[in-house]
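input
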Amino acid sequence: MTANAQADQKNQQTILNDAVNAQSSLTGVNLDEEAAKLMQYQQQYQAVAKVISIASTLFNQILQISASA
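output
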């Protein structure tokens, strides 16, 4: 009787572990993938900042040309 209960407990624990692992694999976060995305977003932000900086410089130069003409 005790051996059957222990076997049942072991089987139930295995089922629980499998279920937890399956859930984790579906809802888990891949840290490598998230780090790669973060680096991509950072590069995009820097590129946009550079475009805005260049546009601002050009606009200021146009204003100076217009003011001196």
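quick obs: The chain has one domain: 2-68.
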